[in-house]
Design a protein that fits this description.
heterodimer, A: OB fold (Dihydrolipoamide Acetyltransferase, E2P), 2 domains, 20 strands, 24% helix, B: 298 residues, MetI-like fold, two-stranded antiparallel sheet, 12 helices, 2 strands, AAA+_ATPase (chain A), nucleotide-binding (chain A), ABC_SmlMolc_Importer (chain A), P-loop_NTPase (chain A), ATP-binding (chain A)
């Protein structure tokens, strides 16, 4: 297993920094996801780790050895890209054997390894087919098999599920998770899909404008985002201005709100607070033990399948709430809400 | 009650009407000329006072002459050699063009330049540069490599055809390069990068990844260039080694003869040339289709 370190890694294209001095440590066997919107530098970072792009400055280390200037052929990494890069003129079997064949492995050995790998990715029956005769999911499995059969030190996945439909994505996520558990290979995945990132990652590095905004475990990034941009990128949330008034309380346009112990309450200056849609609860009856109870009127109701999304006018502001769709409420209905103190997070 | 025509029928009718001008030109000019040429080669030319149709004597006279086979060999040799050399130069050029480097735009413009220069200018340049009184021979004499420009190695006016092949290559390399560059652009970098990450060397990538992928471009470019080379007559006429000439030059000489009756012999040459060329191209295409089928692409 391999530890990967990116030290002050930068890449500048025609004077514009694509990656700006990022520092990331990936532990042996860890599944790290680089998450961010298009153009944030995540793919460029991955391509630098791979060796397909030369950094402008900074260095890349595998197990304490610098590989920054090592040619891509010698890095022993595996890459599965968004468009898979399958060789269209080769069969599935020939595609999977390619890495072994160029490495000079004997043909009988190649056949054995390829056979085993095709069994793992459940494509034994498709060995003689050409890429054009496969579905998107099958092509992705061929690309993964072709990479894994060479036993790379680090597995790099560049939006490998971007071209798949929703159902196939869920299936492939499970497949990638199983493979990672089985092989325990250090893995870096690039995606702009936060669900995919949270589902697969041991840790997530959220990137904006070529920089890492936050590097932490998925639940920490979701519940306690470093800043407003990360909070918005990681999912739907109510973000509103507030001013700390006393220890454990803030003043907001919804009135005074009590904070929980883990609400980042050490921050003193006026700032923004965040509450996720699903953290706010609509209550039928109010009792004295409940904190942060506010009243509002439903101005908009959206059916999302399993959930209903309500937009409510609360005082001079608006809050959005998600609730199981079994509770059907109507526009214009007056309701009471609680904002659990532990679910309010003050943003940096 | 009157029945109305179906929309599909009306659409077909519209398509035929829209295609009519093109069909008239194709069938009338090309098809008509082809039929007329065939008829002449079989002895039908009443406008010259000859009507021996059907006779194969023009073909017999041609095919039984050893000069014809020499001319055919010469024609095929120039066409094959120029196409092959053109490909050998164009493939690496197109790969180089697909990469970005500092002078890539200038490089690309320089490669395209011969496309804009007429063939005859290329032939004239070859005469000026490569002839025994040309620039190279004079320079060689000036540098003391030879005593007199006339001692310079004979490049033009030989059946070796260096000058002819050189002009063909000079003219068709840009065409082939652009054709292959378009295929490379469509293919993208994904497979090359995948091969690199899998540990393949540049040589392995070229032979096992790039070349098979640009094969459709190689086939189409070489087909077009070969078909052109086999039928071209200006370069062999001006730069060739003289009698026996290539088949297009032979045909041209028959057509230029004061005796109109030779036109029929000329037509037999043209039909023979078309037949041989068609057979070669069909065999080449058939071979390529088999190659593609073996790779699951057809």
């Amino acid at each position: 297993m391999t530890q990967v370190q990116l030290k002050n890694l930068s890449k500048v294209f025609s004077g514009t920094p694509a990656v700006d001095a990022i520092n990331v440590d990936v532990a042996c066997g860890e599944f790290l996801v680089l998450l961010g919107p298009s153009g944030c530098g995540k793919t460029t970072s991955l391509r630098m780790v791979c060796g397909l792009e030369q950094p402008t400055s900074g260095s890349i280390w595998f197990n304490g050895q610098e590989v920054t200037n090592l040619p891509v052929q010698k890095r022993k990494v595996g890459l599965v890209s968004q468009r898979f890069g399958l060789f269209p003129h080769m069969t599935v079997e020939q595609n999977v054997a390619f890495g072994l064949s160029v490495g000079g492995m004997a043909e009988s050995e190649q056949k054995r390894h390829v056979g085993e790998m095709l069994e793992i990715v459940r494509l034994t029956d498709f060995a003689g087919r050409f890429p054009a005769q496969l579905s998107g999911g099958q092509m992705q499995r061929v690309a993964i098999a072709r990479t894994l059969v060479t036993r790379p030190k680090v597995l790099l996945l560049d939006e490998p599920m971007a071209s798949l439909d929703t159902l196939l994505r869920a299936e492939m996520r499970q497949f990638i998770r199983d493979l990672h558990e089985e092989y325990g290979m250090t893995t870096l995945l690039v995606t702009h899909d936060q669900i995919e990132a949270m589902d697969l990652a041991d840790r997530i590095a959220v990137m904006f404008d070529g920089r890492v905004a936050q590097l932490a475990a998925p639940d920490e990034i979701y519940q306690q985002p470093a800043d407003e941009r990360t909070a918005r990128f990681m999912g739907h949330s109510n973000i509103f201005d507030c001013t700390p008034v006393s220890d454990g309380y803030v003043e907001s346009l919804f009135g005074p709100l009590k904070l929980g112990a883990g609400s980042n309450r050490g921050l003193k200056l006026p700032r923004k607070a965040m509450v996720r849609y699903e953290s706010i609860r609509i209550v039928e009856s109010v009792d004295q033990s409940q904190s942060n109870v506010v009243s509002g009127t439903i101005t908009r109701a959206e059916f999302l399948g399993a959930m209903m999304r309500y937009t409510l006018q609360v005082g001079e502001g608006f809050l959005t709430v998600e609730e199981a769709s079994s509770f059907k409420r109507k526009t214009g209905e007056a309701v009471s809400l609680t904002l659990p103190p532990e679910q309010i997070w003050l943003l940096q | 009650m009157m029945r109305t025509a179906s929309p599909a029928f009306m659409q077909n009718l519209r398509d035929v009407v829209e295609m009519t001008p093109l069909l008239v030109v194709l069938l009338g000019l090309f098809g008509g000329a082809l039929v007329l040429g065939l008829l002449q080669s079989f002895g039908y030319a009443p406008w010259f006072g000859i009507n021996e149709f059907p006779t194969t004597r023009y073909f017999e006279r041609l095919w039984l002459s050893s000069d014809f086979w020499f001319s055919l060999g010469l024609t095929l040799y120039y066409a094959f050699a120029a196409t092959l050399i053109g490909l050998v130069i164009s493939v690496p050029l197109s790969i180089a063009l697909s990469k970005r480097f500092k002078a890539s735009r200038l490089f690309s413009a320089l490669i395209r330049l011969p496309l804009m220069v007429p063939y005859t200018v290329g032939i004239a340049l070859a005469l000026v540069m490569l002839g025994n009184g040309g620039l190279l021979s004079r320079m060689s004499a000036g540098l003391g490599l030879i005593d007199d420009p006339s001692q310079f190695v004979q490049i033009l006016k030989t059946h070796g055809g260096c000058g002819i092949i050189l002009v063909y290559v000079w003219k068709q390399v840009p065409f082939m390069t652009l054709n292959l560059s378009a295929v490379l652009a469509r293919t993208g970098d994904d497979t090359v990068e995948a091969a690199m990450v899998l540990g393949a060397s540049s040589r392995q990538i070229f032979w096992r990844v790039t070349l098979p992928q640009i094969m459709p471009g190689i086939v189409s470019a070489s087909l077009i260039c070969f078909a052109f080379n086999i039928g071209a007559f200006e370069a062999p006429l001006i730069l060739g080694g003289g009698y026996p000439d290539t088949l297009p030059v032979l045909a041209w000489r028959y057509f230029q003869d004061a005796n109109y009756a030779f036109q029929l012999q000329g037509m037999a040459v043209v039909v023979s040339l078309a037949l041989v060329s068609g057979l070669f191209l069909a065999a080449y295409l058939q071979g390529y289709r088999r190659f593609e089928r073996a790779r699951g692409r057809v």
